[in-house]
Amino acid sequence: MPLFWKAYTSDVTDFIADLKKKDPSLEARQLSGRGLLWDKQINAGLAAEQRAAKVPQQPYVYQTKV
Questions:
Q1: 22 partner at 20 to 30 Å CA-CA among 16, 29, 36, 46?
Q2: What is the pTM of this model?
């Protein structure tokens, strides 16, 4: 392995690293944005109620019941 060998990093990885250097608060803003949509507390009682109310699908969806 030569002395000038450098591990490969993709252009995208370099871009993201450069972006984080320019704006150190970026990661904190990403986490707060993720909290708005993804990190939600699940109400276990409501989830169980929704699972219990689920109607099973027919084997052939377009067949009407007679």
A1: 36
A2: 0.47
